[in-house]
């Protein structure tokens, strides 16, 4: 049970980082959207801290090494909570962006070093990258798309450039690229007989690679009203797939 808590904690850490980095990229725009960001962006900003706090609690319950829980997860949690607070309070854009950037930088360091503590050294090393940075990019990009699709379209919202969707899509595509790199390494190991394909890795490949690729491709071709459902479905699939991968690494 403790290894499941540890896996969940590392994933929550990556997901919070993914939202932070995507928001930093989106929130760099000028104009009315700078002072009146869409509801989806605001909800994502307010989620940074709670996700990080859950991550910290989970790695503590999962008996993670102290340097992971207290040296990495705790400092990022404090910074993410500060970023969430300024989003909740509706602080000035300058302060909001400063807190976002600080959380994103600290989060990258925390996720990279926390991935070094993962067990499961029998698998290809690139799986650790797919479980940490790949997860952050996939869940961050698709999470923003899902939130904006589900919460957007209100009459009192400032109209956002439609090209803004391209930023989270490119973030998610980066995660898909990392996943594809890891999948190719796993495929090579399978062909040479170095490893077998556990059920969890098969679930990861299906949910984190095949399903998001198909749904993102469909979302680019279908009408705009169909996209929120596709973004939400892709996000849910990635959450399941990345949890399966992380669980296989720490088991």
Concise synopsis of the structure shown:
Helices cover 79% and strands 0% of the residues.
Structural class of the helices, strands and pairings? mainly alpha
Separate helix tally: 9
Shape: globular
Q: State the helical fraction.
A: over 70%
Q: How many beta-strand segments? A: 0
Report the span from N to C terminus.
Answer: 10 Å
**What radius of gyration results from the CA coordinates?**
18 Å
Mean pLDDT: 85
Could you give a short account of the major beta sheet?
A: none
How would you portray this structure in words?
This protein is mostly helical and 251 residues long. Helix content is 79%, strand content 0%. The chain is built from 9 helices and no strands. Helix 3 packs antiparallel against helix 4 (66-89) and helix 5 runs antiparallel to helix 6. The mean pLDDT is 85.
Describe how the helices and strands are arranged.
Blueprint: H1 2-26, H2 32-35, H3 39-61, H4 66-89, H5 93-115, H6 126-151, H7 166-191, H8 199-221, H9 227-250
Helix pairs in contact: 1-3, 1-5, 1-6, 1-9, 3-4, 3-6, 4-5, 5-6, 6-7, 6-9, 7-8, 8-9
Key words describing this protein structure:
single chain; mainly alpha; 9 helices
